[in-house]
Amino acid sequence: MKNLARELIVTPGSKIKLAHFDPASTFGFKKESSAGHLEKNLERLAVLQYLLYAEGRRALLVVLQGIDAGGKDGTIRHVMSGLNPQGVDVTPFKVPEGAEKRHDYLWRVHNAVPEHGKIGIFNRSHYEDVLVVRVHGLQPKSVWSKRFDQINDFERMLSENGVTIVKFLLYIGKEEQAARFRERIADRTKNWKFSPADIKEREYWDDYIVAYEDMLRRCSTKHAPWYVIPANHKWFRNLAVSQIVRETLEGMNLKFPKPGADLSGIQFE
Ligand code: AMP
Ligand code: MG
Q1: Looking at ligand 1, which residue's alpha carbon is closest to its atom 7?
Q2: Which of 86, 172, 185, 221 has the largest CB neighbor count within 10 A?
């Protein structure tokens, strides 16, 4: 079986060309025969989360980025569904408002970093500040271009203080986005997900690709790697993300804490 983590990781410093990535690829996995594999990953994730919570000394931060309709919400729904809600914090990042706007861009992000024992999921993240901000010129280049290093420093600081970080770019093709938009328009129960602004944003597709490529090249690091997930097929996206999150948690070598007192002599009537 292909090692998905190894296939999909962005090697630090490597120059990724997203055009060379097939967003429909499934690395030889088949939908039907992979269902059990996904199930097993989800079961194992629940156990690992329990250990993380019990140990209570470290946290996992999962960052999700992707173009509109890329499947960020669906990934959270499907991959995190088996987790104990008490141990998970999901934070969506929208256009900064109020106090967020009056602080540096990492302020709201730092505040949302999971506490020890928890899994934090970012639905969009500080990477918007080198993506949408760059694509729409919300800040000059002199400002956003310094942020790659700032983000690496920030993430390294977190990783040195007990936060393991894993980052996913959900990558769909332009045609697949069109198909998902059409479905959102046609299906009354999906209308709410669609905004006419999404069509406008689609015109910036190529600019986003350039911004994603720089983000991947500059900010995939040993302590906080990026993975590019071919996401046209939702089942494969779920399989790949669950597999990599699972392996990341396995790699933390989580242990139940030693009891705070000697429990061996305790007896009850
Ligand atoms: P959605 O994820 O569909 O709810 O949309 C959230 C919107 O907020 C997206 O259009 C993002 O690009 C935008 N957004 C998130 N973070 C920022 C940011 N730091 N600056 C500007 N726009 C942002
Ligand atoms: Mg949207």
Answers
A1: 94
A2: 172
Of residues 117 and 266, the one with the higher pLDDT is 117
Give the Å distance between the CA of 96 and the centre of ligand 2.
Answer: 15
CA distances from 231 to 21, 26, 234 (A): 11, 9, 6
Q: Which atom of ligand 1 is nearest to the CA of 132?
A: 12
Please check the confidence at residue 104 and state whether its pLDDT lies above 90. yes
- Ligand of minimum distance to the alpha carbon of 193: 2
How open is the CA angle 40-42-47, to the nearest 5 degrees? Answer: 95
Question: Does residue 264 have a pLDDT over 90?
Answer: no
What pTM does this model have? 0.97
Position 192: which residue type? W
Atom of ligand 1 nearest to the CA of 92: 2
Q: What are phi and psi of 122, to 5 degrees?
A: -100, 120
Confidence (pLDDT) at 1: 63
Q: Does residue 263 surpass a pLDDT of 70? A: yes
